[in-house]
Amino acid sequence: MVKEKKWTKEWFEGFIAGAVAIVVADLLIAQFILLSGHSIWLRLFLPALALGAAAVYAFKKQFGGIDGIEKLIPTVRSSPAASTAPEGPDSNKMQALALQGQGQLDQAFEKFRRIQPVDSRLLDLLYNLALEFERKREFKKAESVYLHITQTNKEYRDVQQKLSRAKRLAETEILGVGSMSATASPVAAKTAIGTEKPMLGRYQVEKELGKGAMGVVYLGRDPKIGRTVAIKTMALAQEFEAGELLEVKQRFFREAETAGRLSHPNIVQIFDAGEEHDLAYIAMEFVRGSDLTKHIKPSDLLSPSEVLRYVADAADALDYAHKNGVVHRDVKPANMMLLAETKVIKLMDFGIARLADSSKTKTGMVLGTPSYMSPEQLSGKKVDGRSDLFSLGVTLFQLLTGSLPFKADSMATLMFKIANEQHTNVCTVRSDLPPQIDAVINRALQKTAEARYSNGNEMARDLRAVLSTLS
């Protein structure tokens, strides 16, 4: 490194000395030729020499000679810092604002922190950055920004109150959306005494109720009217490619709006839908009970009369939805809630599987459950209410027997069986069932939609006819 520095200095000295020598030599030669051959005195000779001397003097005064000019050149190449020009406050500020505009808040804060001195304008920018962290529920990061502000001005606006609030909320362990997986908890709140409860839209999040394929379900409360709701969240940005995201969101809100118009005693009511930083959510009626998945085990089956009654009520609900232009697309035991006190069945999650039109998400997950899908839904064709009745037929078979009518070791084999093979006779699996139930299931599970029940009312009628033979 020392040799490199010495070489650079000598090179500059030689270059400058050589340049001056060449100019002076050229002037002397030109003056000698003109004076001896043509008796011409070059009037600019002396002024040129004086100008050269002045240039050398100015160079030395401006840069301090070679020792000064070499400081402007990154000669010490072994040090990265020596080859990097320092960033100015204006440059850092512009970069920080650009990063903040792109949503890269962490990098923006790093740029803001480098700016010195800290003036009132910069405090305003930092304050706005902290508010943006709060909107994203990244309260620990908001706390860091507020703390940075207080190091310059403890009396700035309401920074002390903001700092205290951010500290309290950071203790509730709210996890950011950007770091979660499809089944991770986006608002996993462990609320301590005296802390504020996290919010999702206008709803207070009370506790986690469970996890689904695309997100988490929470118990929430609308503080304005005191209504308790279930909040189903879906991390759409985690599940869909960026190019599809806008279309998926539009479809999500269309489906939520359409399903929200449904009002039926056997359908879970949807109250609201919204979005918080790429986290979509639906606020719906909170029902106390459990879904029917625990009753698909052979050891915990419901009685045939209970199954027939619940499925008939579900068929009525589907008939109502279909007449209002809503297809469920994911009928299965997990989406059938049995109320604990009244023993009423309620269908939920209308239109959720519509998000991808039976296509896969970027994590490879198929929206909708293949074992319950109709042949046309599995093949990606347009579906109508008769597809839901196929799924209800599969559900009926499973609730009665504890097994699925179509089973396979791979997705390809399962799809082939659903589309081409006849299902097992339900009475073969369970001999104590009335033979009439086999006719209902056979019609519901026809391969073509035209051969099935044309509407849910017909299926409900036949199910209640079978039920009447059991009483």
From TrEMBL:
Cross-referenced PROSITE patterns: PROTEIN_KINASE_ATP, PROTEIN_KINASE_DOM, PROTEIN_KINASE_ST
Positions bound to ATP: 232
Residues covered by the Protein kinase domain: 203-467
One GO molecular-function entry: ATP binding
Superkingdom as given in the UniProt entry: Bacteria
This enzyme's EC code(s): 2.7.11.1
Keywords: ATP-binding, Kinase, Membrane, Nucleotide-binding, Serine/threonine-protein kinase, Transferase, Transmembrane, Transmembrane helix
SMART domains per record: S_TKc (SM00220)
Chain segments annotated as transmembrane: 12-34, 40-59
Coiled coil: none
Keyword Transit peptide: no
Name of the protein described by the UniProt record: non-specific serine/threonine protein kinase
Species the sequence originates in: Stenotrophobium rhamnosiphilum
Lineage: Bacteria, Pseudomonadati, Pseudomonadota, Gammaproteobacteria, Nevskiales
